[in-house]
Amino acid sequence: VGESTEHDEL
Amino acid sequence: MNIFRLAGDMTHLFSVLVLLLKIHTIKSCAGISLKTQELYALVFTTRYLDIFTDFISLYNTVMKLIFLGSSFSIVWYIRRHKIVRRSYDKDQDTFRHYFLVIPCLVLAVFINHKFTFKEVMWTFSLYLEAVAILPQLVLLQRTRNIDNLTGQYVFLLGAYRALYILNWIYRHFTEPHYVHWITWIAGVVQTLLYADFFYYYFQSWKNNEKLQLPA
């Protein structure tokens, strides 16, 4: 899996 | 969510509330840089573009709304409020926004995780947040007198990102695919910018004297 660009931080 | 990140978010929230409280109760923004506050409003705007498209958690959405709402209301207070605006020192708060915004934008276009509008805007917000405190630190050194609330505000802002660094270290070891080196570098640069302020802040606290930054 590549770098997840889903940003779950504020 | 880990304890470092929760502590970081709470510290960040507290820093914004301390500032709002100061401005709202004593109706003064003496020592506060409007430039930094406007940059923070831009940081939150470009970082939370996905607030209505990607739902992560109720906590995440609520905190985003609080940060957006508080940063814009602080800018409104300093710009528009008939009493607060009188205490704004525009002759001292002269840092040019574009000296920070343009380099961060260019950097975000060239160095990002994915070349899409949202991802470039998100990366821009990271770079900008790292340097957004500069106008405030310059203003503190110019005006030299730092009242307690402003000192606490800047301290909490620096502490929140330092806690986030602990969160990134924790996530690096606990989550296999958690790789956000851009975030890590921007976060470390941001925290280092506070280093000298922290030094003088602790000195003044230890010697129990007024916080003075060297000219």
Automatic annotation (TrEMBL), chain B:
<protein>
    <recommendedName>
        <fullName>ER lumen protein-retaining receptor</fullName>
    </recommendedName>
</protein>
<dbReference type="GO" id="GO:0046923">
    <property type="term" value="F:ER retention sequence binding"/>
</dbReference>
<comment type="similarity">
    <text>Belongs to the ERD2 family.</text>
</comment>
<dbReference type="GO" id="GO:0016192">
    <property type="term" value="P:vesicle-mediated transport"/>
</dbReference>
<feature type="transmembrane region" description="Helical">
    <location>
        <begin position="121"/>
        <end position="140"/>
    </location>
</feature>
<keyword id="KW-0813">Transport</keyword>
<dbReference type="GO" id="GO:0005801">
    <property type="term" value="C:cis-Golgi network"/>
</dbReference>
<feature type="transmembrane region" description="Helical">
    <location>
        <begin position="55"/>
        <end position="78"/>
    </location>
</feature>
<feature type="transmembrane region" description="Helical">
    <location>
        <begin position="152"/>
        <end position="170"/>
    </location>
</feature>
<keyword id="KW-0256">Endoplasmic reticulum</keyword>
<feature type="transmembrane region" description="Helical">
    <location>
        <begin position="98"/>
        <end position="115"/>
    </location>
</feature>
<dbReference type="GO" id="GO:0015031">
    <property type="term" value="P:protein transport"/>
</dbReference>
<keyword id="KW-1133">Transmembrane helix</keyword>
<dbReference type="Pfam" id="PF00810">
    <property type="entry name" value="ER_lumen_recept"/>
</dbReference>
<keyword id="KW-0675">Receptor</keyword>
<keyword id="KW-0472">Membrane</keyword>
<dbReference type="GO" id="GO:0005783">
    <property type="term" value="C:endoplasmic reticulum"/>
</dbReference>
<keyword id="KW-0653">Protein transport</keyword>
<dbReference type="InterPro" id="IPR000133">
    <property type="entry name" value="ER_ret_rcpt"/>
</dbReference>
<dbReference type="GO" id="GO:0006621">
    <property type="term" value="P:protein retention in ER lumen"/>
</dbReference>
<feature type="transmembrane region" description="Helical">
    <location>
        <begin position="182"/>
        <end position="202"/>
    </location>
</feature>
<keyword id="KW-0931">ER-Golgi transport</keyword>
<dbReference type="GO" id="GO:0005789">
    <property type="term" value="C:endoplasmic reticulum membrane"/>
</dbReference>
<keyword id="KW-0812">Transmembrane</keyword>
